[in-house]
Every structure is written in structure tokens, then in C-alpha cells.
Design a protein that fits this description.
Blueprint: E1 3-9, H1 15-25, E2 30-34, H2 39-43, H3 55-76, E3 79-83, H4 91-103, E4 107-110, H5 120-125, E5 128-130, H6 133-145
Parallel strand pairs: 1-2, 1-3, 3-4, 4-5
Helix pairs in contact: 1-6, 3-4
């Protein structure tokens, strides 16, 4: 069986590449999917539907277009990894984690210790909390290979 792992969350570090490289190095039967990680492209996803005079409506349309991809990939994944960075608040990642929880999709949170408290509910529904991409790879290795 090939597992589909959905990678959600912050887009400013190379955590995705680290997990993908670790999975490849361990010959894990996984494929990866992710939301659009180009911030400008994501913000402009709804622009094809026409110009808006309000930033709210531009964001609203773009979030709906983006959610076609996100919703579909979360529904089809076997497991998700939800990364919370320290530079920005990733409300979209928290939303993705909530979708996973509501759908019964197992997910791993990935974040530093200094944001344990604000993520307590998100972590409580997660199957694991990892602090490093290497820990995520080790979890995937155990779950998939044992």
C-alpha cells in the first residue's frame, strides 16, 4: 500500500523537504500532497473570477478556490502532518487540523515547545506531537513499516 501524507502548515521553512527526503531515504511507500505553498499564488487563487473592490471578498473567493484542493487532499490522505511555525500564526493550519479531527483523519502536529499552550486543543486531537521533521519521519517509519 502506498500512503498519502498531506503536509499542512507554515510555508517559510524547509520542513516539507526534510520529511520528504527522510521518507525517501527510508524507502517508505508514501506520496506527499500539500496546499499551494506560493503565498502570492494562493492569495490570488480567486482573481480569475473577477476583480473585487474589497480585500475581504478577494480573500473570500481565493480561500474558496484554495479549499477545493485542500478539502479534497485532506479527505483522501491517510495521515496529515500539520506544522505550526513561530513567525506567523497559521490559522489555516489550525483549520486543517480541525478538518482532520472532524473527518477522523489521523494527524501529527509539528511545532516547538513555546506554542504548546495555544495549540492544546489541536494537540489533544492529534495522534502525536513532534518537535522536528526527523521525529515525523520516525513516526511514519514505525506506522508504515511495522
Amino acid at each position: 500500500m502506498e500512503w498519502l501524507v498531506y503536509l499542512s502548515g507554515e510555508i517559510h521553512t524547509d520542513w516539507r523537504e526534510q520529511i520528504q527526503a527522510g521518507a525517501k531515504a527510508n524507502n517508505l511507500p508514501v506520496s506527499f500532497a500539500t496546499a499551494v505553498t506560493d503565498h502570492e499564488a494562493s492569495d490570488a487563487a480567486g482573481d480569475v473570477l473577477g476583480e473585487e473592490s474589497s480585500k475581504f471578498w478577494r480573500d473570500h473567493k481565493s480561500s474558496k478556490v484554495n479549499s477545493i484542493r485542500t478539502k479534497t487532499l485532506i479527505e483522501h490522505c491517510d495521515i496529515a502532518v500539520v506544522r505550526f511555525g513561530d513567525k506567523y500564526k497559521q490559522w489555516n493550519a489550525a483549520f486543517d487540523a480541525g478538518c482532520c479531527a472532524a473527518l477522523g483523519k489521523p494527524y501529527i502536529t509539528l511545532h516547538d515547545e513555546d506554542i504548546i499552550h495555544p495549540l492544546k486543543e489541536v494537540d489533544a486531537a492529534a495522534m502525536a506531537w513532534a518537535k522536528t521533521p526527523d521525529q515525523v519521519v520516525e513516526i511514519l517509519k514505525y506506522v508504515i513499516s511495522k
